[in-house]
Amino acid sequence: MNPIKSLLNKFSIKQKLIALSMVTSTIATIITCGGFIIFNVFEEREDLVDEIRLVSRIFAEELSEYVAFENKNAVLKSLDALKTRESLIQTCIYVNNDESAFVQFIRDQNRSKICEEIPKVKGKFEFRDDSISGKHLIVSSYISYDNYKIGSIVMICNLDRIHERIERGVLNSLVLFILILIISYMISRFLQRTISEPILHLADVSYTVRNGSYHVRAKHYADDELGILTDAYNNMLKEIQSSKETLEEKVTERTIDLEKMMNIKSQFLSNMSHEIRTPIHGIMNYVDFLVQDWEILDKEQKYSFVKKLHNNSGRLLSLINNLLDLSKLDAGKMEFFMHKENMLLMVEDAIQECEALYENHKDITLKLIYNKDSIYIASLDKERISQVIRNLLSNAIKFTPKGTVTLELDLVKFKKTSGNKSQGLQLSIKDEGVGIPPNELVYIFDKFNQSATTKTGAGGTGLGLTISKEIITAHQGIIWAANNTNNIGSTLTFIIPIHQQKHKVTKEDHA
Predict the structure, then answer these.
(1) SS3 76
(2) For residue 368, is pLDDT > 90?
(3) Under CATH, what is the fold of the domain 332-510?
(4) Distance from CA of residue 34 to its chain's centroid?
């Protein structure tokens, strides 16, 4: 089987289908023709036996009187009627138990006699000298007279008629076999085309797809299993092509976003290096002045230098604290301790702190609007919310050359980040500065992001708003930015719920 299997493996699917059809047809034809020939042989043999036995019985009755009176001439005259039957080659009449024939009829005198003595026949007939069909058929019948057995008649016939029938059947079967093979080959060629052509077409399409061409589609030949397979394959190609195009679009978008983030990060690092170097240089310069000119500086100058050292140190410390806060928020390790606090007092404290910080530098008025009849108490982390208020307020002051920065505190209902509606405290801080470009409103709170307006000289690292958003989100609140309707300045607003489910949470609890 292994050589045959190896040979079949080298065949194409087209050749395998043809070979399968031809082998099946050949086996079926051989079985059919063989059965037909065998059936005809046995049928012909039975017909011949029945015919000779009938003739034998007729002659046994007809010759019984002649044999009883041993009238050879009459017997021979009666046997002359057998000349018309060409298959009968010898007929012998035996009287009683004589070994030699009383009378015999031989068609061919030159032919050796087959029956010199009474043949021993098992039963009424027997085939002799051939294991398949026998060269001769021997039929024996008793001759009776007045119910007494007086002899027997033995008829011997050749089987040429059967042999001719067999040869004719074999020849006809061979012709039929060849004809069936030709028809089977033609039908198999046609049928294999309906099976192999779609498969080969799918193979060609698959080869094209393997080279990266996902736009090709397989031809739908029929609504059978191959048609279903073709449709499924085309749908798969459609999905792959769509996914590939979507993936390419996403890769392009991500590449643009990555380039944008890299630019923002580079800009952030540049600003950070400037923000760090500026207070450090200031500290070093003022320290140098104090060390070198300590003796010649009066008390007022020394106090001025020390105050500037304090301011630069505070600025540097604030920057470092922002970086540490951002790192903790990113890692989800910053904890928020929730307690009931009066947010109105927190806002007032932040205003006083910022007024002290900017009172000698800018012509700015800070204005607070709130309802005196309302209670502004909420469960919150006082330190972190105060940090948010200071960040937003200091940003508003930085971006306002002169004018009024308005803070408005109110009670509102809103939808928390968890999706549930809740009552909350809303704080809006409106400046009168340069505003925020509309295309930057969406990502103004993103990490490392700075508005293009910071390049005008207001300064900043871009961390304050990012940290503020993370803190508000951890409180299940929302924060957003919008430009003012009069096109002067912008407003930053945040809302936090009055009630918190936990007294101690992390950023990840509300992520």
Answers:
(1) helix
(2) yes
(3) Heat Shock Protein 90 (3.30.565)
(4) 51
